[in-house]
Amino acid sequence: MITEREKYESLVMRVAEHKDKAAFKELFLYFAPRVKAHLVKLSMDPRLAEDLAQDVMVKVWRKAGQYNPAKARLSTWIFTIARNSYIDQVRKQKYPEVNADDHLGEMVADEKTEKPLEQKQTAARVNNAMKHLKPEQVEVIQLSFFEELSHSEIAERLQLPLGTVKSRIRLAFKTLRKELGEYE
Amino acid sequence: MKPHGLIGDEWLVSYAAGSLGEAHACVVAAHIDYHPALKSKLRDAEDIGGALLEVSEPDSLQSDSFDAVMAKITAFEEDMFGAVHMDTEQKDTVPPIVVGTDILPASSLPSSLSQYIADKDLNSLKWRRMGPGMSQVRLWDGPKGEKLWLLKARGGTEMPVHDHNGLEMTLVLQGGYQVGASHYTPGMIELADTDTKDHHPVIDEGEDCICLVVTEAPIKLHSFIGRLVQPFIGL
Ligand SMILES: [Zn+2]
Ligand SMILES: [Zn+2]
């Protein structure tokens, strides 16, 4: 019995290894409408969002060989591709990336790695965890992810001190991580 | 509170969300590169983005959308066929071992920095003098006045005392420095903002200290001489 998640991950593997168009079409049918919807939420014009969602899927095809299910959930990987493409297209900026390997981490001695959440939570779990946030915490998470506002822009929008915005985001994140951790 | 030299979680969330400008994203990504613990937290923060994407009510696509994507893929693969081959050949070559220099080789730099210095090591960059014992390389200027740059300071240098008109993020790449009771070494980040007064970093004795810095606005130098030369430094 394979999970929904394993099914989509195996589709990416088929694209990476065999350039399997049927597998890619299944991925496309699931993710492209969601990527487009996400871009529209970022207040992109629907026609431009359609075009960019297509470009995101082109990148999924091209980078399929780089996808590592042990390092990221598939929807997270596609989210980061969409995020970076959006920034490139709309802001005309690069989004410098974190190295996927721990090539520098080994230089920093005696650092305890917190137990990672592993990659087993589903979107439904994250969504459910969101329900444990206070409304004002949901607000700062949404302003970050859907309006891409910086801390000071959020402070300005909500007429709050910068320190309050930062601690609200920290608390929201802490709650989310805790909720997700409980499933382990 | 958060451990000394590590950035707060609110920055990981903002990085994950895509709400940082390029300069801040570069410094935050570089800092995360040094710390497996931050990398693991970042994965959690990006999972929030993935989940938000996945639970988006699917939008309808144009009827020919899949064909359009396949056409883009075909066009791309025809275009890139030659270039991709050159690419892989270059990546297979072993980077030369740097001999006789006390500066970091390119391979031990955060990857987010590499693209701004064309994968060079720090030694072969064009350092511009900016004051006694200090030099800089400008990497990127942003639309909101933010500047991404590298600072190199000789061991024992006292940085001029200053205040800030915006946020200043400093990530140590090599060497170390002291601010008051706090000591910063490679991988550590220091945030100083308008509330940080009389900022006076003192470079450790010994090797050059090299930092990746983002500033949002020109700093306020205390000394008259400093203010005189500031326009020429451009920071
Ligand atoms: Zn002062
Ligand atoms: Zn300063």
Automatic annotation (TrEMBL), chain A:
<dbReference type="Pfam" id="PF04542">
    <property type="entry name" value="Sigma70_r2"/>
</dbReference>
<dbReference type="GO" id="GO:0003677">
    <property type="term" value="F:DNA binding"/>
</dbReference>
<feature type="domain" description="RNA polymerase sigma-70 region 2">
    <location>
        <begin position="28"/>
        <end position="94"/>
    </location>
</feature>
<dbReference type="InterPro" id="IPR014284">
    <property type="entry name" value="RNA_pol_sigma-70_dom"/>
</dbReference>
<dbReference type="InterPro" id="IPR039425">
    <property type="entry name" value="RNA_pol_sigma-70-like"/>
</dbReference>
<dbReference type="InterPro" id="IPR013324">
    <property type="entry name" value="RNA_pol_sigma_r3/r4-like"/>
</dbReference>
<keyword id="KW-0804">Transcription</keyword>
<dbReference type="InterPro" id="IPR000838">
    <property type="entry name" value="RNA_pol_sigma70_ECF_CS"/>
</dbReference>
<dbReference type="InterPro" id="IPR007630">
    <property type="entry name" value="RNA_pol_sigma70_r4"/>
</dbReference>
<keyword id="KW-0731">Sigma factor</keyword>
<keyword id="KW-0805">Transcription regulation</keyword>
<dbReference type="InterPro" id="IPR036388">
    <property type="entry name" value="WH-like_DNA-bd_sf"/>
</dbReference>
<keyword id="KW-0238">DNA-binding</keyword>
<dbReference type="InterPro" id="IPR013325">
    <property type="entry name" value="RNA_pol_sigma_r2"/>
</dbReference>
<dbReference type="GO" id="GO:0016987">
    <property type="term" value="F:sigma factor activity"/>
</dbReference>
<dbReference type="InterPro" id="IPR007627">
    <property type="entry name" value="RNA_pol_sigma70_r2"/>
</dbReference>
<comment type="similarity">
    <text>Belongs to the sigma-70 factor family. ECF subfamily.</text>
</comment>
<protein>
    <recommendedName>
        <fullName>RNA polymerase sigma factor</fullName>
    </recommendedName>
</protein>
<dbReference type="GO" id="GO:0006352">
    <property type="term" value="P:DNA-templated transcription initiation"/>
</dbReference>
<dbReference type="Pfam" id="PF04545">
    <property type="entry name" value="Sigma70_r4"/>
</dbReference>
<feature type="domain" description="RNA polymerase sigma-70 region 4">
    <location>
        <begin position="129"/>
        <end position="178"/>
    </location>
</feature>
UniProtKB/TrEMBL annotation, chain B:
<dbReference type="InterPro" id="IPR014710">
    <property type="entry name" value="RmlC-like_jellyroll"/>
</dbReference>
<dbReference type="InterPro" id="IPR011051">
    <property type="entry name" value="RmlC_Cupin_sf"/>
</dbReference>
<dbReference type="InterPro" id="IPR025979">
    <property type="entry name" value="ChrR-like_cupin_dom"/>
</dbReference>
<protein>
    <submittedName>
        <fullName>Anti-sigma factor</fullName>
    </submittedName>
</protein>
<dbReference type="InterPro" id="IPR012807">
    <property type="entry name" value="Anti-sigma_ChrR"/>
</dbReference>
<feature type="domain" description="ChrR-like cupin">
    <location>
        <begin position="122"/>
        <end position="215"/>
    </location>
</feature>
<dbReference type="Pfam" id="PF12973">
    <property type="entry name" value="Cupin_7"/>
</dbReference>
<dbReference type="InterPro" id="IPR041916">
    <property type="entry name" value="Anti_sigma_zinc_sf"/>
</dbReference>
